[in-house]
Structure formats: structure tokens, C-alpha cells
Predict the 3D structure of the following.
Amino acid sequence: MFLVVVSACILSTSFVYAEETPSFSIGAFGGLAVGTSGEAVKDYDDTKWENGTAYGGSVMYRMTNGFGFELLVEQFEMKLEENGYDIGTLKATPILLMIGYQSKPNNLNIAFHATIGGGVASSDLDKETGLKDLERYSGVKIDISNDDAFMFGCGAGIDYFFTRNIALTLGGLFVAGNIDSKWDYRNGESKNYTLKASNIQGLVGIRLWF
């Protein structure tokens, strides 16, 4: 695949984008996710998110006027810590329906895109060393379950077209939402926490146009 992309770069020239027909595309991306909340768990100032990862894909339908619809599915992962102790890793999977604009490439084969929308995310919080140690020392196990949550998303970026049908994408995506997390302690106690999962992502990807 790497040699295919390199060859496309070498052979690429300017081209004229079709004006008369809508376009369909599929893409894949990955990158860095950085939490934007001052506290990772609501009302607990010492909690924070470590920088994590995001990856996923989308399908897009672009109309002749440049506006279109995108269905985006991704997973972002960020580690929750408090005072240097790793508590758990949040793994969230938003499914977002976006509306946006995708420009046509200019004579340098560069285009831009912008999207906004929302959807729902399922998630898990996988226990890390700090929480596992607490369970072991206390003798009390904890069962963690997260509710599905609404997520808002917006993003923008640029696209470089190697050929008419293959583009490298560079951009950012802001995903905002809170996740209700229920912790059932096997000593009979139960507590609810709010995970402030908003994050900004720097992404790179490949998109194929048909």
C-alpha cells in the first residue's frame, strides 16, 4: 500500500473535478486524542485524562454544490488517572451523523472540508493498576458499567488529492459529551460518576472517492 501511495504521488498531476455528478467516498483515519476538561471526573479536581488515541472510518455522500452527509464511526481511548495513579482506560465508540461541506480540489490538488453533527457513544472503562491494587488491598471488587451517551462532533481539515480518487486527509475533530458511569461495589454500595469525555483529536487518513 505504501508503494501504491508513493507511486500515486510521483504520477499525480492537476485534474478537473466532475461538476455534474455527486460523489461518494469512504475513508479511514487515526491519530491523537487529548482531553479538554479540567477534571476527568465531575467534582473530582485531581482526576485527569492522559493523551490517548483515536481511529475509525466514515462514509460520505457529497452533492454537486459541495454539501453532503457523513456517517462516522470511531473509537477513542484515554487513560483516567488521579494523583499519578492509573484508574482505568476509557474506550468509547461514537457513531456520528454529520452534515458538512467538501470543496473541490484547486489546481494544486488541495481541498478542504468541514463537518458538524452528533450521535451516540457506547463505552467501557477498563480497570488499570491503581484500581486493581485498591480492589486487592480492600478485598472489595468493583463492577463498572457506562450508559450510552450523546456526543456532539465538529471538525475541519484539508485534503491532498494524489489522484482523482485518492486523497490524504489532515484535520481535527472535536468530540464533546459526558458519560454516566455506575460503580457497584460488592460490599453493597453503589455510586454514580460523570466522566467528562470531551476531547480534541488530530487525525491523518486516506479517503477514496468514487
User: Anything to note?
Assistant: Residues 1-21 have pLDDT under 50 and may be disordered. DSSP finds two helices and twelve strands in the chain. The two ends are 19 Å apart (CA to CA).
